[in-house]
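Researcher: Final request for today, and then I'll write up notes for the group meeting. The sequence and the SMILES for S-adenosylmethionine follow.
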Amino acid sequence: MAELLDLDAEVLHEYFAEVISQVQAAAGAPPRPRILDLGSGSGTGSIALARSFPQAEVTAVDLSDDMLRHLRHRAAEAGVGDRIRPVQADLDAGWPALDTVDLAWASASMHHLADPDRVLADLFATIRPGGLLAVLELGTFPRFLPPDLAGFEERLHALGDADRHARMPHIGSDWAPMLSKAGFAVEAERQFAIDLTAPLPAATGRYARASLGRLRTALGDQLDAADRATLDALLTDDGPQSVLHRPDLNVRTARTLWLARRP
Ligand SMILES: C[S@@+](CC[C@H](N)C(=O)[O-])C[C@H]1O[C@@H](n2cnc3c(N)ncnc32)[C@H](O)[C@@H]1O
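Model: Predicted protein-S-adenosylmethionine complex:
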């Protein structure tokens, strides 16, 4: 998962830079901002925010010790390790002890939570009046394959979406009403339609493999024999079908950013 998150950030770096600059513009320039990254994963958001706000102290909260270990390593490599504090916490079990913050960021993490309304209420109480919350969520999972494999890829995603919705009922939600219900004033909602076309850098093949590989693990026997064989050929290290080597990969995905302020 950490590899997939890192590759997502690497391949989609232009879109991500746009998101960060929009958040930066909306957050203004508090003198020594305190920032919270909720469900920080491998650290993409924490590191980008620490770089964009050079005086900031960032608290990165995640359930997974492995993710936080990875984040610590990446943050040190990026030269911002001294300004990012990892905190292990299960947000479904309760809210950790946190200082008031100027800016909170939750990227692809809200949909994991069992009771996002409760977490949004805790977030509201943790953000200072006038402070900002940025919620970033996936609209669609990335598609990579050329037109002759589009039908196959859609079949995979139909099964993958059903599996994810069963495990994470809040995935794909419209977060604006939930933010308003928690007391936030929603200031902006922006949809990003990402469409990167071949030829793309080699990281795209690794990203496609990590992404399709997760579907292979999740779906296993739900795939029929022909689709399983097609997928396995795409996931091989070598061979003409391997996503690591084929020159015809694209990246199509959609993301939504909500900016909400505590009045
Ligand atoms: C899809 S990842 C997103 C990571 C990162 N924000 C990003 O955009 O790259 C979701 C993260 O939420 C974390 N997470 C899921 N459930 C959680 C919970 N109950 N409490 C804290 N973190 C949780 C996972 O461990 C994972 O790192």
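Model: The CA atoms of residues 39 and 109 lie 5 Å apart. DSSP finds nine helices and seven strands in the chain.
Researcher: Thanks, that's everything.
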